[in-house]
Amino acid sequence: MVSRRRIRSQAKFFYTSRWTKAHDMAFINSLAWVAENGCKQLDPGRPDAAGIRFAMDIVNSFSLVQYGMEFYSARLDFLRQRYNAFSRILSDQGFHWNPNTNRVIGCKESWDRLFVVK
Predict the structure, then answer these.
(1) Of 19, 20, 39, 62, which sits with the fewest C-beta atoms within 10 Å of its C-beta?
(2) Cα gap 109→115, rounded to integer Å
(3) Half-sphere exposure of 14 (CA within 13 A, CB side)
(4) Which residues pair with 103 in a beta bridge?
(5) Is the Cα torsion angle 25, 9, 13, 35 positive or negative in sign?
(6) Cα–Cα distance list, 11 to 14, 19, 94, 108 (Å)
(7) What is the pLDDT of residues 56-67, one digit of tens each?
């Protein structure tokens, strides 16, 4: 019998007592505002340092803890990796998003194919 590890709650994985969902929303919305309002970027897929600094200033303005550029760059990379992984799962024919439960739904065969147990 194969033992299955329990997957940690995403809320515990994504957020600590200092960084919350509100921080992420403000950060993402600030980056979106920068992109929509014509901030020149070196690479359209990756906000440049000025865009990240703008978002950092917005979030730090209401945060009790002041984070620096290194943290925000790492957070953006983390969010991008999670988004890409989530998108890859949903692009597979065996999975779909259930908006009523906010969960990814897939048959056992699809999950087994995704998480190959060795």
Answers:
(1) 62
(2) 10
(3) 15
(4) 98
(5) negative
(6) 5, 11, 25, 24
(7) 999 999 888 888
Neighbouring CB atoms inside 10 A of 95's CB total 16
Phi and psi at residue 104, to the nearest 5°? -85, 130
Per-domain residue ranges for the chain? 10-114
Residues 4-22 pLDDT 10s: 555 556 666 677 768 888 8
Taking the CA of residue 30 as centre, how many other CA atoms within 13 Å lie in the half-sphere pointing to its CB?
Answer: 20
Paired strand residues for 97? 104
The count of residues in the chain is: 118
Give every residue of the chain whose pLDDT is below 50, as ranges: 1-3, 42
Q: What is the pLDDT of residue 2?
A: 46
Q: How far is CA 53 from CA 12, 13, 19, 38, 114, in A?
A: 26, 25, 17, 15, 37
Instruction: Read off the tokens for 7.
Output: 């997957």
For 53, residues 6+ apart whose C-beta sits below 8 A from its C-beta are: 69
Asked if 94 contacts 113 with a C-beta cutoff of 8 angstroms, the reply is yes
